[in-house]
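Hey all, sorry for the wall of text incoming. These are the three entities for the joint prediction.
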Amino acid sequence: MRHLITTNDLSEKDISEIYRLADSFLEGPTPHLLKNKLIITIFFENSTRTRSSFEVAAKRLGAEVVNLDVAKSSTKKGETLYDTAANLDAMGPNAIIVRHKSSGVPYTLSKHVNCSLINAGDGSHAHPTQALLDLFTLLRHFGDVRGKKIAIVGDIKNSRVANSNIELLRRFGMEVILVAPPHFLPKIDLASTYDIREVIDEVDAIMSLRTQTERHRYPIYASLKDYARDFCITKELIKKRDLIILHPGPVHRNIDISDEVLSDPRCKVLEQVKNGVAVRMGVLVKLLHG
Amino acid sequence: MRHLITTNDLSEKDISEIYRLADSFLEGPTPHLLKNKLIITIFFENSTRTRSSFEVAAKRLGAEVVNLDVAKSSTKKGETLYDTAANLDAMGPNAIIVRHKSSGVPYTLSKHVNCSLINAGDGSHAHPTQALLDLFTLLRHFGDVRGKKIAIVGDIKNSRVANSNIELLRRFGMEVILVAPPHFLPKIDLASTYDIREVIDEVDAIMSLRTQTERHRYPIYASLKDYARDFCITKELIKKRDLIILHPGPVHRNIDISDEVLSDPRCKVLEQVKNGVAVRMGVLVKLLHG
Amino acid sequence: MRHLITTNDLSEKDISEIYRLADSFLEGPTPHLLKNKLIITIFFENSTRTRSSFEVAAKRLGAEVVNLDVAKSSTKKGETLYDTAANLDAMGPNAIIVRHKSSGVPYTLSKHVNCSLINAGDGSHAHPTQALLDLFTLLRHFGDVRGKKIAIVGDIKNSRVANSNIELLRRFGMEVILVAPPHFLPKIDLASTYDIREVIDEVDAIMSLRTQTERHRYPIYASLKDYARDFCITKELIKKRDLIILHPGPVHRNIDISDEVLSDPRCKVLEQVKNGVAVRMGVLVKLLHG
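and here's what came out:
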């Protein structure tokens, strides 16, 4: 295993190793396992959050990081993506971390490099480290997730986060229920509903997605407020139920999740951020160490 | 003391410690006192100068630095400042260094983080490390500053640099005289004049401020040239007097200070830049070490 | 020797030392020869490629790097270049690496700093590290380059890469032939032709330049396609001849060099990128170490 393009690239054994590493990083001082390793990040789509999580992870492990500012890069001079990747690879990094708005770009680039290529999100296709940190957060909370039910809520069809989670969570024995308006539901053979109130009593966890106005043009709802009326995770909805709430961030307050729920201890958003650094450290060590 | 929001957060004893550290950093090789520490910078207002001074300071001490490019950050996706800070904090940095165009933002953010929060300038409120380096430069020159007179010249009302210096310099026994046109004078109980020539014979130091066209709209003077006629620090003004000249930079040449004075040994602008790195190193060690 | 502004700053002995270092860096693990050194990069003209090559080189040697984002820098606040350089220098870096669109800027700045100043390309004047890596690539291929013939093809007149190479390659005994349309030929006493087919049988190497639409306004050719018909390096042109092809990148595919030639083993573009890191490491060590 050299690249991480989708969660399918990892066996359950690989994932167990990554999680064992992440657990250890959450506990103690971090050994500089990636000393003298060089990692290049190249984000063709803006994401301060994911990029800085990877950068923090790499630096905690003693690696050197070079961030490419793509807005200014050779791609503006008409260079092909293929050439950009081959050129970066020629500089001898140990890994290149890529985000791109088009599905499939990290896979294609991985064919043209000798180093590891890590997908930090491509189009509506995959976001493997996000799914890995989500499952890790669920495992840390529940111990065992086999048989647990999770509702994924929101614009599932356009979400690489949902895509990667559906694959990964089901592989680890979770039951996934999709909750979305018809236009946001993917054509996939999974339990689904338009009304979260129908399933709220059965679920152990809710994964709220970010409402994304970027990736589809026509308005489904007259306004985000109308959308929120049906799909926002509120105190009125969850009451005192024994469940946890996840969200990949950044959260649209009172559209995705209400202010009140965001400060409820059942909401694990900040824990996900913290776990994200540890899981990405685990991924980097797994791919680059030894 | 965990945060540095204004100079008031520091006792005179704290400041002495910071200066003792800064003195030592100016002399010898720097021990890596902040090895394995992680510092995040997030500048919502552009400032290559202050940001790079902090970055150089942190790196000289062996810390890792992650710079967030805010133009591209989640704040564009509508995330609240509160959430941005809480999320960065969840990644486990030892300090977050913030600049923001609105007064009070660093204070508010400090309530939502577990790490240290350092104010690198907020609106027209405070710029504590600038005042610390200014006082440090005065102390290195005069030995003792008690009883010395300093004229602060320029747009004092809109200046966080002036604000922080007025508090700090007076606390260390200096007499501050404000020199500015009426619209640039704050309502504060301090000696002031519209004419620098009135006080030039009494002062030991002049702190020229940058003329800031950004933070107030209506023109006070028909042109910067008219302003310069009255307030630019020129050779004709200072003659051979025994005084020194400070400026927080970047200097508007021949508006704030004349070319001739800038190359005069009494002008300490570059020494301030050099001292700035040493003082910020002292601040980081004081807040983060041990 | 403190600065590197043009290839003329380096004697043949200096260059031999740099190449001996570069050879060693290509082979083994890199000693941290620049530990505790600080390098500032300031690129007034975009160049992800050159900037990241220098950054990788510096970090491999254990140096700290601070990148200044000039689009946001004090230069926007009207500070002079002189002041920007003097201020950076006051922060105590060991080297400043500069790119600027105007010829002569690095030389002028070098007069105002105490640290090393390295030219990473200025206007159409010089790009010394590019020429150094090109010669290094030729030496690694040919062993001895004395008496070898190289055709430089394209917009030579506006090319700092060509300028620096013409000086350096001739000094090391190569015969340089210029191949370009009349408007792209500099007024210089060197063999030249408008038709590459005239010299293709004599040359040992071809250095294709990037077609630069940025630095001259009037169109020479009706279209890049017309230009390519005459000057693109194609398989039909090079056939099975024993020669190698260089290009400073980024390559305009099928304008500068055809797809087919780019994947031919005689094309050394990616080797140049790899060598570029090693040569820049050699330059940094030569200037900053000991």
